[in-house]
């Protein structure tokens, strides 16, 4: 069938055959379909949507468009985790050693950040010498021996998604739910795990700002995963303020170590344990989520998770002593305190603005060519619901320059302070099992 016929079929609300979707992905990846036809196709999907089988077919075809990791040589049930992204989200580093300590293999491919703050790989590189470029044999050997490895994504992972995403970005079709879901899930399918836990963020610092949209995305991805034979669960969690108290690469690593020592902010600890619990259930180590939470907490309490994290850092080339002495990690030259303009309750914090502030300091990239400054970031001294006095610290900015007035002003604008305590917002809104 000609591409124009496929476009017309979807435009008119008809269901596409799997072969038609596969033909489109194959031809578009090979530059045999012009961008203007792919744009028309994306717009047709934006307005007409896709059913479960169409979405699964699109996901599978995009996963097959490039490299696919074969994890069959790793014994046990491989469980992956994906977050739709947020500010201060460092759950991967907390839950991965917990799950590995329980014997569930964690074979994770992660990316670098583009936008608010650094990505998973950027944060790991806060440990000098940490190796993120691993060949497949080394990656699999590390997981088989030690139950955990995290590596950078292959340059040829889901090339169809890379092409289509770039096109969607300039054709106002980014928000097409089947295209969002298939973009995320194609990378998870290509990464080769047996089961997937999704952390779908909702709020001012998330891609999905309202709960109905977050639920729709979560359900679509769960349906795709299950349709493709991957047991998939989703947790919808709050991102209406930064998660934890640290935003910035080394700052977040220090907070991870704090949580694995049994301390740290309650929100990041609780969410990490809940996500780990779902992974433990899928990995066959817990009968239900409550038992999984109990096991995860035990593995933190007895030091097992911290031991795994320390060994993980060592096995991928960095100095494990830094886990015990995180104060030796790189520090910024300056610390600037942003103070409350008036007394009252912190009623809201715009999480995106806090992420932008960290990025302006150098913690994130605006272009792929930008260099990350691992030392800088934002330390949250007051969060939503806290009472602050006039002149009390709202945040500390960790900077490597002293001209941060623009960042200070942005942080001030991100905070709203009122006379009454705000209604408490759930940390976890919904779970799809």
In short:
By secondary structure, this protein is of the alpha/beta class. It contains 17 helices and 13 strands.
Please give a structural write-up:
The chain is an alpha/beta fold and 433 residues long. It has 3 domains: 3-49, Transferase, Pyrimidine Nucleoside Phosphorylase, Chain C (Transferase, Pyrimidine Nucleoside Phosphorylase, Chain A, domain 3); 79-324, Nucleoside phosphorylase/phosphoribosyltransferase catalytic domain (Pyrimidine Nucleoside Phosphorylase, Chain A, domain 2); 330-418, Pyrimidine nucleoside phosphorylase-like, C-terminal domain (Aldehyde Oxidoreductase, domain 3, Alpha-Beta Complex). The chain has helices spanning 3-11, 18-29, 35-48, 52-63, 91-101, 120-124, 136-146, 159-169, 177-190, 211-227, 249-260, 266-282, 289-301, 304-315, 321-324, 351-361, 405-414, and strands at 79-83, 106-110, 148-152, 195-202, 231-238, 246-247, 334-339, 344-349, 377-380, 387-388, 393-399, 415-418, 428-432. The strands form 4 sheets. The protein has a 4-stranded mixed β-sheet, with helices on both faces. Strand 4 (195-202), helix 10 (211-227) and strand 5 (231-238) form a beta-alpha-beta unit. Helix 1 (3-11) runs parallel beside helix 3 (35-48). It is globular, with a radius of gyration of 22 Å. The model has no long low-confidence stretch (mean pLDDT 95).
């Amino acid at each position: 069938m000609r591409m124009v016929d496929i476009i017309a079929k979807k435009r008119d609300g008809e269901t596409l055959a799997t072969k038609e979707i596969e033909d489109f992905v194959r031809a578009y990846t090979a530059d045999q379909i012009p961008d203007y036809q792919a744009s028309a196709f994306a717009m047709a999907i934006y307005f007409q949507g896709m059913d479960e089988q169409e979405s699964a077919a699109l996901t599978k075809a995009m996963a097959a468009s490039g490299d696919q990791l074969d994890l069959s040589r790793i014994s046990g049930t491989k469980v992956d985790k994906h977050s739709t992204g947020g500010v201060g989200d460092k759950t991967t580093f907390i839950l991965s050693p917990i799950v590995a300590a329980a014997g569930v293999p964690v074979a994770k491919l992660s990316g670098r950040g583009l936008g608010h703050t650094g990505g998973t790989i950027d944060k790991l590189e806060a440990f000098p010498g940490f190796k993120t470029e691993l060949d497949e044999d080394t990656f699999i050997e590390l997981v088989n021996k030690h139950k955990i490895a995290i590596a950078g994504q292959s340059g040829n992972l889901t090339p169809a998604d890379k092409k289509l995403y770039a096109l969607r970005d300039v054709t106002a079709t980014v928000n097409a739910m089947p295209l969002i879901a298939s973009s995320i899930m194609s990378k998870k399918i290509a990464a080769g795990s047996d089961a997937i836990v999704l952390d779908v963020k909702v709020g001012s610092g998330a891609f999905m700002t309202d709960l109905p949209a977050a639920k729709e995305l979560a359900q679509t991805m769960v349906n795709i995963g299950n349709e493709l034979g991957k047991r998939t669960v989703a947790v919808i969690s709050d991102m209406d303020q930064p998660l934890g108290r640290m935003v910035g690469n080394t700052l977040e690593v220090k907070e991870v170590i704090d949580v694995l020592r049994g301390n740290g902010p309650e929100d990041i600890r609780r969410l990490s344990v809940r996500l780990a619990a779902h992974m433990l259930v899928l990995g066959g180590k817990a009968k239900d989520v409550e038992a999984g939470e109990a096991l995860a907490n035990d593995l933190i309490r007895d030091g097992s998770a911290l031991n795994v994290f320390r060994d993980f850092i060592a096995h991928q080339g960095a100095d494990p002593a830094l886990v015990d002495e995180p104060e030796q990690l790189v520090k910024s030259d300056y610390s600037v305190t942003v103070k409350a303009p008036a007394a009252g309750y912190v009623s809201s914090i715009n999480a995106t603005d806090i992420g932008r502030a960290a990025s302006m300091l150098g913690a994130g990239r605006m272009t792929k060519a930008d260099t990350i400054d691992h030392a800088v970031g934002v330390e949250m001294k007051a969060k939503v619901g806290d009472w602050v006095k006039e002149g009390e610290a709202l945040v500390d900015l960790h900077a490597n320059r002293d001209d941060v007035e623009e960042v200070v002003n942005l942080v001030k604008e991100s905070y709203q302070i009122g006379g009454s305590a705000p209604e408490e917002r759930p940390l976890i809104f919904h779970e799809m099992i």
